[in-house]
TrEMBL record:
GO terms for biological process: fibroblast growth factor receptor signaling pathway; positive regulation of DNA-templated transcription. The keyword Transcription applies. GO terms for molecular function: zinc ion binding. This is Protein Churchill.
Length: 112
């Protein structure tokens, strides 16, 4: 992973968790070849372990195959919620939790 290729290491992305793709707004350009071109995805792997899905891949420079960052995304179901996390030097860090129920119990207002 290369901190010379990104504007900010691990920016806070709130609840935006990317399973694939790249956050190009944080990409300065390749520190190796000094080109600012597309970032490709390589070495993508998906593991499923006890109900938790883990997706990993590398962001690489299109021109010189320099590894810009390693991306990790997880998905799991805990109780009545879908849990998502993302950790990547380029794309940032984020967490999200969404209810599998039609109405999220955390969002309902008390009646009295």
């Amino acid at each position: 992973m290369c901190n010379g290729c990104v504007q900010k290491e691990y920016p806070d992305r709130g609840n935006t968790c990317l399973e694939n793709g790249s956050y190009l707004m944080n990409y300065i350009g390749c520190a190796n070849c000094h080109q600012r071109d597309f970032v490709l995805i390589s070495n993508k792997a998906t593991e499923d372990d006890d109900g938790e899905e883990l997706v990993t891949y590398d962001h690489v420079c299109k021109n010189c195959d320099h590894i810009v960052a390693r991306h990790e995304y997880t998905f799991s179901v805990v109780d009545d919620y879908q849990e998502y996390t993302m950790l990547c030097m380029l794309c940032g860090k984020a967490e999200d939790s969404i209810s599998v129920l039609p109405d999220d119990p955390r969002q309902t207002a008390p009646l009295f």
